[in-house]
């Protein structure tokens, strides 16, 4: 532990410049040492906007030359594994943006590597810090509600323009302080898939975080509409305790209407939990007819964009644990890896165990 967390940011795209860099500069325990991005123009724009002196177009050089405690990684999805592996091998604590990686084998390796090196690995899921989510997780893990039998998990969002390569509409919504995502989410080479890797990663991770369950098989169908990536997804997931989950998502909401609708409902033997992220409500229903309606959230509590970066600082300065641990990210990757394979094969059931057999071959 140290008095100040010396942190670098790798990747200076829209989310790093919108959330992570401002969060680090606002945190009194953080020292933002350097920025790195292979794109010199993006790097220069971010450094100038936020007044960061040290910049590197080669993150390997930065890791060798700077004395760091941790890093924030916010690069293209397809680059997550290589960058995170290098940082963990340097013994650094890591905040890795979602999705953790694109394949189950890579997710397992990073999880194991973080343990071997004694490094905390935080996956960038801000809803894991939501007070309603924390209370619902506590209720489910207490055993009072009994065994989980069925989960309804639905996420609708207004991101189809991003899958078409146009970030202009979202500029009105998010007011990019430096840069937007451009066409990255429309490109399967850089982003893997669309709705699954951009949005279902959030809702599925929230489901797994709440329940502590692990996926064992997935059946999925996906529709790309007029894009090169998936826009509408429907999945049936079997969990390790036998429970079934319905995981659905669409990116087709209109950008000038409601921004999103995200609901996770967990049905158990002796009650159920209804978490509505979009409406900022949560009710826990118990057998016998009693219910616990949680109080409304204060402003900024639902989606705390700065929470993952603040968690990284707390890990370094105070020895805090990761509040969004790699196990959740890894299991989410297992679910998505199986879902994409299933959809590519007409909805065939894909056992999670087969993902490792395929990768080994």
In short:
By secondary structure, this protein is α/β, with parallel strands linked by helices. The chain has helices at residues 14-26, 40-50, 59-65, 80-89, 104-117, 131-142, 160-163, 168-174, 188-191, 195-211, 307-318, 326-344, 353-360, and strands at 5-10, 30-36, 54-56, 70-73, 93-97, 121-124, 148-157, 215-223, 232-239, 244-250, 260-268, 271-276, 281-286, 291-293, 350-351. The protein folds into 2 domains: 5-127 and 306-325, 3-Layer(aba) Sandwich (Rossmann fold), CATH 3.40.50.720; 131-302 and 332-360, Dihydrodipicolinate Reductase, domain 2 (2-Layer Sandwich).
Structural account:
The protein has a 9-stranded mixed β-sheet. Strands 3-2-1-4-5-6 form a 6-stranded parallel β-sheet, with helices on both faces. The chain is built from 13 helices and 15 strands. It is of the alpha/beta class. The protein folds into 2 domains: 5-127 and 306-325, 3-Layer(aba) Sandwich (Rossmann fold), CATH 3.40.50; 131-302 and 332-360, Dihydrodipicolinate Reductase, domain 2 (2-Layer Sandwich). Helices cover 38% and strands 25% of the residues. The protein has helices spanning 14-26, 40-50, 59-65, 80-89, 104-117, 131-142, 160-163, 168-174, 188-191, 195-211, 307-318, 326-344, 353-360, and strands at 5-10, 30-36, 54-56, 70-73, 93-97, 121-124, 148-157, 215-223, 232-239, 244-250, 260-268, 271-276, 281-286, 291-293, 350-351. It is globular.
